[in-house]
Design brief:
Helix content of chain A: over 70%
Number of domains of chain A: 1
CATH topology of the largest domain in chain B: MetI-like fold
Radius of gyration of chain B: 25 Å
Oligomer: heterodimer
Helix content of chain B: over 70%
Number of helices of chain B: 15
Strand content of chain A: under 5%
CATH architecture of the largest domain in chain B: Orthogonal Bundle
Shape of chain B: globular
Structural class of chain B: mainly alpha
Distance between the termini of chain B: 26 Å
Largest sheet of chain A: none
CATH class of chain A: Mainly Alpha
Number of helices of chain A: 12
Number of strands of chain A: 0
Radius of gyration of chain A: 23 Å
Largest interface: A-B, 52 and 57 residues
Distance between the termini of chain A: 28 Å
CATH topology of chain A: MetI-like fold
CATH architecture of chain A: Orthogonal Bundle
Chain lengths: 306, 368
């Protein structure tokens, strides 16, 4: 696959003396991509994640039926029934269609968490690392306090306070997910904050906000991205757990955890109702874990193999 | 779950610049300062936990006064009750009262059972503890050898299999795995007991004839010599403990592998091999012996994780422990019980975290 690119492009990308910032950046990206290609498990993970995104985008096309359409004569049909190749649930809704549409819900939750928790963690971590002193102590103590909490229990307590629902579940997950990002960002900030180019920016009169957002944060990004990918599976599992307990997405939304919980009542006679959405969660989490492991090996060689 | 791997890394780089000097007084002084710092962290973290539960308790859109006086109370009655609850005080003062109550063991009264929450928790906690302990045992007994084997055969099939096993553990929802286990081993094969801690008939015998000593059924029945009840309890606990233990297996085997890889690269391993020591002794005695210290902290951390993981597992297996207590309280709007449970799990979590930190400092001289 590495030879698909025409050679002048490859030469431009792998040039040892890039002439512009964009060339250097793209070159790095290309080298990372090549490293990722050498790791078949990471590619499998990437394929799974892409499949999730595709399924979410094309859900109405892929689904054979309306995921909410009830049809009581067709209730609890086993997999392989005509028109319902994964079977139906207790309201006669097509399981395949519900699982495909569930990809949207899962992706929605994951994206919402990703645009909140890492951003907050990044802000806290870079500020702590950049300013140091009292700010550092206070912010990191706070981070440690949140880090010492049991994640699911805290999310439970938050949802108990805010009321069940997807947005509240996301808020609860985000509130418990940011501390590791703050730690990672602080560690990265500490390694660059004494560099000459930061001093140069300060001498030119750049403000703290500008230095943090323009010169420090971009350098933390690769670690944070690895962390996010590795965190995804955990986020999906906690969200599914909240859904399973009835605290996340509410019926009739086709959320996978919720679907397992409703299939639980028929577990011993109609096993497929609970099994199918669980498999979906498992495959997607596995995909993110595989991809995350691969990305970590590429972007963060220090911790490779851990 | 995976972030715990990261938190462990920072510890070894403590302020140990003068650790080489064997000064007795300095050693004790440093040890004492370390302990004080640890206690301060413990207090701060616990206070933080209480602050969060306090805030959550206040954010709730339920008026606690209304719950007591009822809807038809006069304004005067309402105000009196409000005053009695201390709700007219400034927030910080209320938080002070809250901390005082919790520290003296008062977690409020459960609406559901009409008993003090602390009593309820004392009643259900042994079941959770029994489950989590057995699960950890499972994870250690299988996870440590698996990790060692994976490290010894790095890059080979065994290594890949152990890695895959771990990845599956990180990717499977625990409640789903529990349901699948029930479906297969209880519904189809009938090898294990179903949900709950005992069959109904044995439950009866247990209630009447077995004295409560520890609250753990397996221990109590063994002490009383009620072996038929013991067998039944064992058949019920095997599956949930194995399901829960699988997650600690995934974590422990992964960490054991990376610790062992580090040790096997050391020179003392080469020396031992050159001396002609049998390979099994090099791996299982010398290298594993040096891994035990970080491993203990990993086990303590995974134990803490299991206490939390028990919430979902207990719901699936109708296991009458703390997790089931919290979820049931959630659905009946029993806030005092939810917050009480959160505080207890959180406190256990914090304590285990600190315990592992302490163990690390005690046993590993580099971390002092």
């Amino acid at each position: 696959m590495a030879n698909v690119l025409p050679s002048p492009w490859r030469a431009w990308l792998t040039s040892r003396s890039p002439r512009s910032r964009r060339q250097a950046w793209l070159g790095q990206l290309y080298l990372g991509w090549l490293a990722l290609l050498r790791n078949p498990l990471a590619l499998l993970g990437l394929a799974i994640v892409l499949a999730l995104v595709l399924a979410a985008a094309a859900a109405p096309l892929l689904a054979s039926q309306d995921p909410l359409a009830q049809s009581l004569p067709d209730r609890l049909l086993p997999p392989g029934s005509p028109g319902h190749w994964l079977g139906t649930d207790e309201f006669g809704r097509d399981l395949w269609s519900r699982v495909v549409h569930g990809a949207r819900v899962t992706l929605y939750i994951v994206l919402l968490v990703v645009v909140t928790a890492p951003v907050f963690g990044l802000a806290v971590g870079t500020a702590a690392g950049y300013f140091g002193g009292l700010v550092d102590v206070v912010l990191m103590r706070l981070t440690d306090v949140f880090l010492a909490f049991p994640r699911l229990i805290l999310a439970l307590a938050f949802v108990a306070a805010l009321g069940p629902g997807i947005e509240n579940a996301v808020l609860a997950i985000a509130l418990t997910a940011w501390p590791p990002y703050a730690r990672v960002a602080r560690a990265e900030t500490l390694t660059v904050v004494r560099s000459d180019y930061i001093a140069a920016a300060q001498l030119q009169g750049a403000g703290s906000l500008r230095i943090i957002t323009g010169h420090v944060m971009p350098l933390c990004l690769s670690s944070v991205i690895v962390r996010i990918t590795l965190d995804m599976a955990g986020i999906i599992l906690v969200a599914a757990g909240l859904g399973f307990l009835g605290l996340g997405a509410q019926p009739p939304l086709p959320e996978w955890g919720l679907m397992i919980s409703s299939g639980r009542k028929f577990l011993f006679d109609q096993w497929w109702v609970a099994t199918v959405p669980g498999l979906a969660i498992f495959v997607v989490s596995l995909g993110f874990n595989l991809l995350g492991d691969g990305l970590r090996d590429v972007l963060d060689p220090r911790s490779a193999g851990r | 779950m995976t972030d715990l791997a990261g938190t462990g890394r920072g510890r070894s780089g403590g302020p140990g610049a003068d650790a080489g000097r064997p000064l007795r007084g300095g050693w004790v002084g440093r040890r004492a300062r370390g302990l004080l710092g640890l206690l301060a962290t413990l207090a701060a973290t616990f206070l933080g936990l209480l602050f969060v539960t306090f805030i959550i308790g206040r954010v709730i859109p339920i008026d606690p006064v209304l719950a007591i006086v009822g809807e038809r109370a006069t304004t005067a009655q309402y105000e009196a009750a409000r005053e009695a609850l201390g709700l007219n005080e400034p927030l910080l003062v209320q938080f002070g009262y809250y901390v005082r109550d919790v520290l003296s063991g008062d977690l409020g009264t459960s609406i559901l059972t009409a008993r003090p929450v602390i009593e309820d928790i004392g009643r259900v906690f042994p079941a959770t503890l029994e489950l989590a302990t057995l699960a950890t045992l499972f994870g250690v007994l299988l996870g440590v050898p698996a990790g060692v084997l994976a490290a010894v055969r790095q890059g080979r099939l065994t290594d890949q299999l152990v890695r895959l096993l771990g990845l599956f553990g990180y990717s499977m929802p625990v409640f789903w795995l529990g349901l699948m286990g029930l479906l297969l081993f209880y519904g189809q094969l009938g090898w294990v007991g179903g949900p709950g801690r005992l069959d109904t008939t044995y439950q009866f015998i247990f209630e009447l004839e077995v004295p409560r000593v520890t609250g753990a059924i397996l221990i109590d029945t063994a002490l009383a010599g009620a072996w038929d009840v013991f067998r039944n309890a064992l058949s019920h606990i095997v599956l949930p403990a194995a399901v829960l233990g699988y997650y600690s297996l995934a974590y422990i085997s992964r960490m054991t592998r990376s610790f062992m890889l580090e040790q096997l690269r050391q020179e003392y391993v080469t020396t031992a091999r050159v001396k002609g020591m049998p390979e099994w002794r090099v791996v299982w005695v010398h290298a594993l012996g040096n891994v035990l210290v970080p491993l203990i902290t990993v086990i303590a951390l995974s134990y803490a994780q299991l206490l939390e993981g028990s919430v979902l597992t207990e719901t699936v297996f109708a296991w009458p422990g703390l997790g089931l207590y919290i979820t049931q309280a959630l659905f009946s709007g029993d806030l005092a019980a939810v917050m009480g449970g959160t505080i207890v799990v959180g406190a256990a979590f914090i304590l285990l975290n600190l315990l592992s930190d302490l163990l690390y400092r005690l046993v590993d001289p580099r971390a002092r």
